[in-house]
C-alpha cells in the first residue's frame, strides 16, 4: 500500500488579534514539542509571559490554513503607543507546515508594514545549536549582536556576609539599581519586563553600612533569576553570595538564570562557583529596518 502525503502550503499571513490564549498555547506547544529544550506552556503561563515581555497580538504574525494556525511569531513592543523596537519572544512552526520557509515569508510580508508604523529594529534570541532557526533568521536579514550563556542548578553558598541586611522591596529603585549593572540586560531581564511581571517576580535589596549595596530579582514560581547586581563600591564583600543564599533558602529549590553576556565572565564565574552550571548558550540577533 502506498501512502501519499500532500503538503499544504500556507500563504495567509495576518496578525494574531483574533486568536485566543488557548489557541496560541496549543500551537506553541505543538511547535515546540520536539524542541532542543523541553517547553510546555499552559494558557496561564503564556499569559504571564506575554504580560512580562509585552507581547502584543496586533504586532505578532500568524500563518494560517483557514482558521488553523500553523506558525507564529510573537512580538513584544518597547512602547505601548509609539514603539520603535519589536522583540521576538517566540517563533514556532508546527510539524505539519515545516519546510516552507515560513519565518522568512512572514517577515518578508510584515517588515514593510512595521517600517511604515515606525519600527526601526527587531530583536530576538536563539539557541546557538539551533542551526535551522539561525539560518532562517539570517536569511530574513538578522545578524548576531551578542552571545549569552545560561545557567541552572542548586545554589551552594559557602561564604556570606553577616553584616548584610536583606529585605524584599515592592518598589525597586531601578534608577539606582541600573547603575549596579555591568551589562545591558536582555529583553526579558530588563527593568520594564520585571515591573510588568510583578508580583510574580520579586526583588530583594541588600543593605550594608546603611546603604543600598545590591539587589536580586527572581521569578518566584520558576525560581529564575531575572537580574542580580552589586554596587561597584561594595563588590568583593560577599553581597551577591548573601543575596543568592537568601533567595535560595526562601524559595527552596533549583534556580536558573539566562542570557549572561559572554563579555562578563566574572558573572559566569560567580554563578558556577555558586553551584549553577552552564547548560546552553544563545545568540542575541537583530535586524535594523
TrEMBL record:
<feature type="domain" description="N-acetyltransferase">
    <location>
        <begin position="164"/>
        <end position="289"/>
    </location>
</feature>
<dbReference type="Pfam" id="PF00583">
    <property type="entry name" value="Acetyltransf_1"/>
</dbReference>
<dbReference type="InterPro" id="IPR000182">
    <property type="entry name" value="GNAT_dom"/>
</dbReference>
<dbReference type="GO" id="GO:0016747">
    <property type="term" value="F:acyltransferase activity, transferring groups other than amino-acyl groups"/>
</dbReference>
<feature type="domain" description="N-acetyltransferase">
    <location>
        <begin position="11"/>
        <end position="163"/>
    </location>
</feature>
<dbReference type="InterPro" id="IPR016181">
    <property type="entry name" value="Acyl_CoA_acyltransferase"/>
</dbReference>
<keyword id="KW-0808">Transferase</keyword>
<dbReference type="InterPro" id="IPR050832">
    <property type="entry name" value="Bact_Acetyltransf"/>
</dbReference>
<keyword id="KW-0012">Acyltransferase</keyword>
<protein>
    <submittedName>
        <fullName>Acetyltransferase (GNAT) domain-containing protein</fullName>
    </submittedName>
</protein>
Amino acid at each position: 500500500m502506498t501512502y501519499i502525503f500532500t503538503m499544504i502550503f500556507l500563504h495567509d499571513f495576518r496578525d494574531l488579534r483574533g486568536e485566543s490564549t488557548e489557541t496560541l498555547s496549543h500551537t506553541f506547544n505543538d511547535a515546540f514539542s520536539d524542541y532542543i529544550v523541553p517547553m510546555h506552556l499552559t494558557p496561564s503561563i503564556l499569559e504571564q509571559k506575554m504580560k512580562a515581555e509585552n507581547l502584543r497580538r496586533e504586532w505578532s504574525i500568524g500563518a494560517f490554513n483557514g482558521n488553523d494556525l500553523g506558525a507564529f511569531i510573537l512580538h513584544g513592543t518597547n512602547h505601548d503607543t509609539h514603539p520603535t523596537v519589536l522583540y521576538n519572544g517566540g517563533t514556532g512552526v508546527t510539524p505539519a507546515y515545516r519546510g516552507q520557509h515560513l519565518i522568512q515569508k512572514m517577515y518578508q510580508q510584515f517588515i514593510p508594514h512595521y517600517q511604515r508604523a515606525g519600527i526601526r529594529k527587531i530583536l530576538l534570541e536563539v539557541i546557538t545549536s539551533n542551526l535551522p532557526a539561525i539560518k532562517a533568521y539570517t536569511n530574513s536579514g538578522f545578524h548576531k549582536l551578542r552571545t549569552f550563556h545560561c545557567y541552572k542548578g542548586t545554589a551552594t553558598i559557602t561564604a556570606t556576609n553577616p553584616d548584610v541586611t536583606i529585605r524584599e522591596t515592592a518598589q525597586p529603585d531601578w534608577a539606582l539599581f541600573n547603575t549596579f549593572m555591568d551589562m545591558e540586560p536582555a529583553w526579558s531581564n530588563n527593568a520594564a519586563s520585571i515591573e510588568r511581571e510583578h508580583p510574580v517576580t520579586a526583588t530583594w535589596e541588600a543593605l550594608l553600612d546603611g546603604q543600598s549595596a545590591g539587589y536580586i530579582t527572581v521569578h518566584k514560581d520558576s525560581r529564575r533569576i531575572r537580574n542580580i547586581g552589586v554596587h561597584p563600591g561594595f563588590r568583593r564583600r560577599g553581597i551577591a553570595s548573601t543575596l543568592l543564599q537568601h533567595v535560595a533558602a526562601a524559595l527552596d529549590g533549583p534556580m536558573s538564570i539566562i542570557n549572561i553576556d559572554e563579555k562578563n565572565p566574572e558573572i559566569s564565574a560567580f554563578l558556577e562557583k555558586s553551584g549553577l552550571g552552564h547548560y546552553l548558550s544563545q545568540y542575541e540577533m537583530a535586524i535594523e529596518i
